[in-house]
Amino acid sequence: MSILEAIGNTPLIEIPSLSKLSGSRILLKCENLNPGGSVKDRAARHMILNAISEGKLKEGMTIVEGTAGNTGIGLAIVGRALGFKVQIVMPNNQAKEKERLIEFYGADLITVPPCPFADENHFYHTARRMAEKDPEKYFWVNQFENLNNQLAHYETTGPEIWAQTGGQVDYLVSTAGSGGTIGGTSKFLKEKKSDLKVILVDPEGSGLAHYFKHGEFKSSGSSITEGVGIMRVVANFKEARVDDAFTLKDQELVDIAYYVKEHDNIILGASAALNVAAAFQIAKQSGGGKTIVTFWCDGGERNASKLYNPEFLKTKNLMIKLK
């Protein structure tokens, strides 16, 4: 088996403490167990292999992408395993653990100051310009608009969840960044079970939940999460079959992260903690007896400097409440 073949087929585990408190089964798809430690490995593999098969990525070319981190790690693993150079552009305010992992896996890393998407210096546009200057040399992955992103989850993640639950799943809860995970997974599961409810959870600073409810992008605040939340509709998110959406504050994800760490020895990354906090809310509201699936999209080890750093949390006015 190659490292590419090790991507996917992740276990689905129950969170005992939260299931007991809520009266519903809260299940966690362990995407942190992919080789690169996140759900983004699936999309990276699919986008690169399809680019090769379609003749867009050829021998000697360099893979380039703008990312908040996890997609860059996945692309570094997949690209280098297939013999390609990989160039990653990343905002310089992301967890330093992610920067180190991208470099550990052999990619070249460029960091840029964070700025609004409309600014041409945004990491997305920086990567795009690099590729456009020399399209014979660079392949721009474009994870937000590349539909092979959501197709990875339609073809693998969704079917795995369906098989692992025996078709007995009532809710799918997920945040969205590029939209690939919620897009492909919800599309597959809705085709299998039309009355399944798909819930989008948004961090503060993102406008997707407001857009879903009101048809316009509006947000307030900011979040310690990375790589999730967005202020525009991208191609992969358009594939999502969302029934409801809501926003959670960072304090709620911090509370859940430390609770399951203490009671279940589950160490969630910030985005995964947002997912689990939302799943727990849905479980409490559902009246019990439901099966709720969400994503352990990445592990806490790459959030040690933020989510699990008391000094950092203090700077964001977030408290650790051990129960």
In words, what does this structure look like?
β7, α7 and β8 form a beta-alpha-beta unit. The chain has 323 residues and is an alpha/beta fold. 53% of the residues are buried. The chain is globular and about 55 Å long. The strands form 2 sheets. It has a 6-stranded mixed beta sheet, sandwiched between helices. α2 (40-53) crosses α6 and α3 (70-81) runs parallel beside α4 (96-104). The chain is built from 12 helices and 10 strands. Helices cover 41% and strands 15% of the residues. The mean pLDDT is 96.
Low-confidence runs (pLDDT<50, min 5 residues)? none
Give the N-terminus to C-terminus distance in angstroms.
43 Å
- Biggest sheet layout: 6 strands, mixed
| Largest sheet, spatial ordering of strands | 1-2-10-7-8-9
Tally of DSSP β-strands = 10
Estimate the helix proportion, in percent: 40-55%
Radius of gyration: 19 Å
